[in-house]
Design brief:
Structural class: mainly alpha
CATH topology of the domain at 3-301 and 384-468: Sodium/glucose cotransporter
Distance between the termini: 76 Å
Order of helices and strands: HHHHHHHHHHHHHHHEHEHHHHHHH
Strand order of the largest sheet: 1-2
Shape: globular
Helix content: 55-70%
CATH architecture of the domain at 3-301 and 384-468: Up-down Bundle
Low-confidence stretches: 312-318, 519-528, 585-589
Mean pLDDT: 81
Length: about 600
């Protein structure tokens, strides 16, 4: 059976399963729509959290970043997994004990202010919408290749699928759909990794294959370093980014993880407080399966790519692949516009090299790197084709990539819809609306968010993982400090919390917009999208940690010069933090 037909069958079957589950688990009350009725078992919730978490950035883009950035991309592994430790220890059990539906609802109550709730909604929508843009990019990449349509068409197809099952099911439907999606995506990620590791190193475990030897006896990473250097790229295992920027990016991803509303909302769905911490532990187990596999996938994908294009000694006429003899995967990805080749010297061969080879390349008669575009987000999806794996494996990877993007997109859209319908409409502007009207408003808000995210996803400000990193920075700089201070600082008042959230969010937004050039013209002094112009070499994706520090400092300073919160609010903080049955410390004085 040809690849296209097989892909339609596999992807279509998974879609049918997702939609069937969403219909069967359709939310009929606001409690089921927002928090799945608080009846999800912690193991199942951990699996759903894993799917919610392992987005297009994790499944599709992270290994692509590792493939091209090498050592420097390890910050994504450290930051995204380390954040769950913070979440499990510092936030999840306390927020579950408080027992409300959304993060803005907690912030509004804790800081006894509707204004604080509105600011929290603003922060949530900003971070979540940025995040879902990255998912739409991943959806477009997957659909464009395997449906053989332009990237933009792939985005629109993904929007339609998300609309069907996310709008219908709410949190209850999304939770059970995400459990199915986890099974699909983890199987789809590990099976080709096992095949490729076995082919290259003889070891079926990718985690061990990464540190193993090739058939020639040379270590895989040593061979990869050698090829990269020979082709004018930096050594794969060398640190290329500054230590400061790597540290701040890791911190931004960690605290951004702990501050993402759609992830926090997952811990509102379990029956008991202790189940929230248990869910976080199970989520780490399920996530670790993919995250420990990703470094092997990235390294092997880069090795296979360079072996395919550069088949002989650098500079030899027969050492570059003839374009007319390029394998089918090459032309398939060219159709999507995510892989582009330009024969600059008219020799009919593909010259692929880094800036370190520019001087020698001129002597070979080459007129520049002819691989004018290799979108990093294609690496995981193209890897099985490059390695000549069976068609059923390629189709399975397509289904897994789509499942990863759709599962996270659904959770993000629910967080946005909940903020608009429950926190703004029900909580502030129309408190007397019925439950049916609130559900309708949620679904309309979710549909609107899908349209906006899809349109922005067609022209994102970076690769999927880079866009997601920006979203984490926004969550880190705005929501995480407010939650931490709300739980652990009895003295923090509404003035301090509001000032801190606004300061953190605005400083991070300004930094991102300035250096990513969303609103300005690139190449001008208005938008110096160049590491040389970054403040102390801090990238836009890393600035979230700085924004969080600004948030903490401003919030603490303002709270010190303004009135303390009411006594009942301080007692509420004690109640949230102290385990049931313990003596309330404030009651002893």
């Amino acid at each position: 059976m040809d690849l296209k037909t097989l892909t339609y069958i596999v992807v279509g079957l998974t879609f049918a399963i997702y939609i069937f589950i969403a219909i069967r688990a359709r939310a009929v009350s606001t409690a089921e729509f927002y928090v799945a009725g608080k009846g999800i078992h912690p193991v199942l919730n951990g699996m759903a959290t894993g799917a919610d978490w392992m987005s297009a950035a994790s499944f599709i883009s992270m290994a692509g970043l590792i493939a091209f950035k090498g050592y420097d991309a390890s910050v994504y592994l450290m930051g995204w997994t380390g954040g769950y430790v913070l979440l499990a220890m510092l936030l999840a059990p306390y927020l579950r004990k408080y027992g409300k539906f959304t993060v803005p609802e907690f912030i509004g109550d804790r800081f006894y202010s509707k204004s604080a709730r509105v600011v929290a909604v603003l922060c949530l929508i900003t971070a979540s919408l940025t995040y879902v843009i990255g998912q739409m990019k991943g959806v477009g990449v997957a659909f464009s290749r395997f449906l053989e349509v332009p990237f933009e068409t792939g985005v629109f197809v993904g929007m339609g699928i998300v609309f069907i099952y996310a709008v219908l099911g709410g949190m209850k439907g999304i939770t059970y759909t995400q459990i199915a999606q986890y099974c699909v995506l983890i199987f789809a990620y590990t099976v080709p990794a096992v095949f490729i590791s076995l082919n290259l190193t003889g070891n079926p475990i990718p985690q061990f294959g990464l540190g193993g030897n090739l058939e020639s006896g040379v270590a895989l990473l040593d061979k990869l370093d050698q090829i990269c250097v020979d082709l004018g790229f930096a050594a794969y295992t060398a640190q290329k980014d500054s230590t400061l920027n790597m540290f701040l990016l890791t911190m931004s991803l960690m605290i951004g993880t702990a501050g993402l509303p759609h992830v926090i909302a997952r811990f509102f769905t379990v029956p008991k407080v202790r189940d929230a911490r248990s869910s976080a532990g199970w989520a780490l187990v399920f996530i670790a399966i993919l995250y420990t596999t990703a470094p092997g996938v990235g390294a092997m994908a880069r090795l296979n790519l360079m072996h395919t294009i550069q088949t002989g000694p650098v500079g030899a006429v027969d050492g570059n692949l003839e374009y007319s003899k390029a394998p089918s995967w090459f032309s398939n990805w060219e159709k999507t516009g995510l892989l582009k080749f330009e024969d600059k010297n008219g020799d009919g061969r593909i010259q692929y090299y880094g800036s370190g080879l520019d001087d020698k390349a001129a002597g070979y008669g080459w007129k520049g790197n002819e691989m004018t575009k290799v979108d990093r987000d294609i690496m995981v999806l193209a890897n099985p084709e490059i390695a000549n794996l069976p068609n059923w494996v390629i189709a399975l990877v397509a289904a897994g990539g789509i499942a990863a993007a759709l599962s996270t997109a659904a959770g993000l859209l629910l967080a946005i819809a909940s903020a608009i319908s429950h926190d703004l409409l029900k909580g502030m502007f129309m408190p007397n609306i019925s439950e049916t009207q609130e559900l309708l408003a949620s679904r309309i808000a979710m549909a609107g968010a899908i349209v906006v995210a899809g349109i922005l996803g067609i022209n994102p400000p970076g690769f999927a993982a880079q866009v997601v990193a920006l979203a984490f920075g926004l969550a880190a700089s705005s929501i995480f400090p407010a939650l931490m201070l709300g739980i652990f600082n009895r003295r923090m008042n509404n003035s301090g919390a509001i000032a801190g959230m606004l300061a953190g969010l605005l400083s991070t937004l300004i930094y991102i917009f300035w250096f990513k050039g969303w609103f300005f013209v690139k190449g001008t002094a208005m938008a110096p999208d160049d590491p040389a112009h970054w403040l102390l070499g801090i990238s836009p994706g890393s600035f979230g940690a700085v924004g969080a520090l600004i948030n903490f400092v401003v919030a603490y300073g303002v709270s010190k010069v303004t009135a303390p919160p009411p006594q009942e609010i301080q007692e509420m903080v004690d109640h949230i933090r102290v385990p049931s049955g313990s003596v309330n410390p404030s009651a002893e004085h």
